[in-house]
Amino acid sequence: MFNSNKKLILIDYQNSYFYQQKRKKLRRKYYKIMIIIVFLALLSAVIVPLAQANTDNTERHSQINSTTNGLIHGPQLIFDHPDSSQRVALPVDLNAQVKVSGLVAYVNVTQVFINPYNMTLEGKYQFPLPENAAIKHLKVNVAGTEIIGEIMEKKAAKARYKKAKTQGKKASLVQQQRPNLFTNNIANIPAQSRVVVTLQFIMPVTFDKNQATLKLPLAMTARYHSDNAQPSPAEEDSAIIVPIANALAKSQASINIELNAGVEITNIDSNSHQIKVQQLNHDKSSYLITLAHEQTLANSDFTLSWQLQANEKPQVSSFTEKVADEYFTLLTFFPPQVEATTNTFARDIIFIIDTSGSMQGNSMTQAKASLQQAISQLGKNDSFNIIAFDNSVDLLFPMTNMASDYNIGQAQQFIKNLNADGGTEMYRPLSQALVMARAAQQTQQAIRQVVFITDGAVSNEFELMQLLSGAQQKFRLFTVGIGAAPNGYFMKKAAQFGRGSYVFIQNSADVQRQMSALMAKINHPAISNIELIFDSQVHQEVEVYPKRIADLYLGEPMQIAVKSKLPITSVQVMGNTTTEPWYQQVIIDDSSSAHGISTLWARRKIADLLDTLVTGADKQQVKAQVISTSLAHQTLSPYTSFIAVEKKIVPLPLMAKNSLLSAKSKLTNLAKAHENLMVAMPKTALGWHQQLLIGLLLIMLAPILLCFAARRKSYALKPKS
User: Fold this and answer.
1) Which residues contact 74 (CB under 8 A, 6 or more apart)?
2) pTM, entire model
3) Pairing of strands 347-354, 296-297
4) How many CB atoms lie within 10 A of CB 102?
């Protein structure tokens, strides 16, 4: 029988071996799950940022490629932020005030931008200029501090900029990287401050077929720049800026042009922008041109063209500028606007053709075709000869002969028999051409023209330039470059010293077209043998560039720059036309004053000084004279740069209320335009590391807490003894 009084014994199975093993397996399971979770968390913490970085790099690379293949919208500004992920290309707004005097434009460009970061940084940007532009003046206003630029020798300018940057001074360094590309580095721009850069430069107005064209670059194509590429000498001091991202906003531009052509003009038009034209003072040579819309995107170059009023006689315009106690005058010669007629100058032409070994193959084929084309276009009033050379000289005639059908036939046969072989000895054929006797039937007034067809593969350019420079007889030298890679330096300089021009023919299909154009040009000079006669009072005090005045050809105007100690009131111009001597007295109008004439004269003088190196001038003396001229007229040269440094360190002035509001407004717009880029908030990236660590700790503690909670529950169910 069951004894109900018997004491009951409760057995705790929770501490049995079975349950101990079960709990151990459960703990192992929790630990495995915890390790997997921690591993996955760590893996995501490493892989996700790397993937995001790769994505950012890929996007940035694609942005660079897309920008490189397209246009940068105006000058693109990049601040040297210590965090490369913070760097973005910012806009630079432009305002251009242009004054055109004849075929010279004086441009005042204001470039405005803001430092949107919360720290003082260096800004770097590059901007386009016309190839032959001459920077005249630089002024930089940084956060209310104005600094004025000055020209100094390149190395000294760079050293001074680095020193000012280290000292915390505001400074600007403008350098020419390429003929049409400049860079501007501005040091120590305060946080969220406004910068205004004012550049003044002169630029040429092109002229073709009686139409003048002004082209003002507003945008530039990004150029691919390999990391392994060797910098050119002009790029050694300042690296090309490659855009790192698309601009947060597009650069804007506004343009106003005061046009004084010096002669009557018509048909003012722009094929790039919509414009408004207003005549000034009822003068058919003076106009005000503005954009139809006050501002436009700086995503394409601005072009303006105007047509000269037709005139059967040559015209001369004049502009003056007084600088200190010196006077500078610019004379622009416009040829008559007439079609080429049968009335041409009698010419005494000598063709020199290179038959040396370097001309073998396609070059020789092109050279013979060019010569045959030129011979076929001779007139009956012309006399001619052919000199073929390698290391020896072969003449068609002992002297020039008239261009009769019989003589032209002999010339064509002579050309067919030419073959390329031997060395390249140019000195002898060139010297023979300069002193060769002319045909007895030819007039003494006939113009001696030398057409030199060669690949220019010579090493004695120095001797050849000396020969051309020292030649006493009046002649005109025209060089024709043949082949894929002619010696461009020799060809250009030889033509310049010979008061002629040059042409390159690299494609055999272009031989007929280019030789026809050259022969048509040299067959129709509008005025030859031009001379200037000044008043006797100023005659001894003038300095004229170019020193050797070339002929005036149809469709091609010519400019002469003059410096004088006394004002020039008039100048007599003499020359020859096809039918008679030509004379014109030019009255210099003091009211036709213009900016930049002194700069243009200084650039002509610098070019002339550099040309003397070709004829053996002392390099150090030339360099000193170039630097002296550059400093005196404050225009850049190969040996100088623009540098602007504040004179002393002053406390950062408070920005004007309007400027501050404008800066804040721009910052707000930039942030809205590009929310994903952390431009002016470097601290917003902080905190994610701490959050990740806290999360990992919670994940690791979770299984332990669960085990602890389960154990507490099991003990709570255990009966008390």
Assistant:
1) 91, 92, 94, 127, 218, 219, 250, 251, 252, 253, 298, 299
2) 0.62
3) unpaired
4) 26
Q: How far apart are CA 409 and CA 400, in angstroms?
A: 15
* Cβ partners under 8 Å of residue 43, min gap 6: none
Q: DSSP letter for 634, please.
A: T
Indicate the pairing of strand 93-101 with strand 252-260.
parallel
CB 666 within 8 A of CB 74: no
DSSP 652: P
| SS3 assignment, position 381 | coil
Q: Which CATH architecture has domain 315-332+527-611?
A: Sandwich (2.60)
Tokens of 292: 């139809």
Residue bearing the bigger pLDDT, 493 or 185? 185
**240, pLDDT greater than 90:** no
Three-state secondary structure readout of 79-92: ECCCCHHHCCCECC
Q: From the CB of residue 278, how many other CB atoms can be counted at a distance below 10 Å?
A: 9
Residue of 173, 156, 175, 163 whose CA lies nearest to 232 = 175
Every domain of the chain and the residues it spans? 13-56+696-717, 70-309+637-645, 315-332+527-611, 347-522
Alpha-carbon gap, residue 201 to 133, rounded angstroms:
6
Of 305, 260, 300, 258, the closest CA to residue 284 belongs to: 260
The encoded tokens of residue 203 equal 């630029």
In whole angstroms, give the CA distance from residue 515 to residue 523. 12
Secondary structure (3-state) at 677: coil
Distance CA 173, CA 158 (A): 7
CATH of span 347-522: 3.40.50.410
Do domains 70-309+637-645 and 315-332+527-611 share one topology? The answer is: yes
- Helix axes 488-497 and 597-611, enclosed angle (nearest 10): 110
| H/E stretch holding 368 | helix 362-375
Determine contact, residues 610/626, Cβ cutoff 8 Å: yes
In whole angstroms, how far apart are CA 491 and each of 150, 426, 485, 520, 537?
36, 12, 12, 20, 40
CA–CA dist 585, 266 (Å, integer): 25
Helix (H, G, I), strand (E, B) or coil at 498: coil
- H or E segment and range at residue 568: none
> Is the pLDDT confidence value at 346 over 50?
yes
CB atoms near residue 487 (< 10 Å): 20
Q: Give me the residue label for tokens 């004088």.
A: 564
The pLDDT value recorded for residue 289 is 92
Q: 129: how many CB neighbours lie within 10 A of its CB?
A: 22
State yes or no: cis peptide before 546, omega within 30 of 0. Answer: yes
| pLDDT tens for each residue of 142-191 | 888 888 888 888 889 999 999 999 999 998 888 776 666 778 889 999 99
Architecture in CATH of 70-309+637-645: Sandwich (2.60)
Nearest to 526 by CA among 330, 318, 309, 343: 343
Token representation of residue 332: 């622009």
Long-range pairs for 651-655 at CB < 8 Å and ≥24 separation? 652/143, 652/190, 653/143, 653/144, 653/145, 654/144, 655/143, 655/144, 655/193, 655/194
Q: What is the 3-state secondary structure (H, E, C) of 445-469?
A: CCEEEEEEEECCCCCCHHHHHHHHH
For tokens 């917003």, the residue is 684
Q: How far apart are CA 164 and CA 145, in angstroms?
A: 15
In this structure, the strands spanning 211-216 and 275-279 are unpaired
Bridge partners for 183 per DSSP:
126, 175
Top-ranked range on mean pLDDT: pick from 19-28, 373-382, 651-660 = 373-382
- The CA-to-CA distance between both ends of the chain, in Å, stands at 26
Q: Note the pLDDT tens digit of each residue in 605-628.
A: 998 898 888 777 888 999 999 999
CA-CA distances (angstroms) from residue 472 to 314, 448, 491, 616?
Answer: 28, 12, 21, 19
What's CA 138's distance to the chain center, in Å?
A: 18
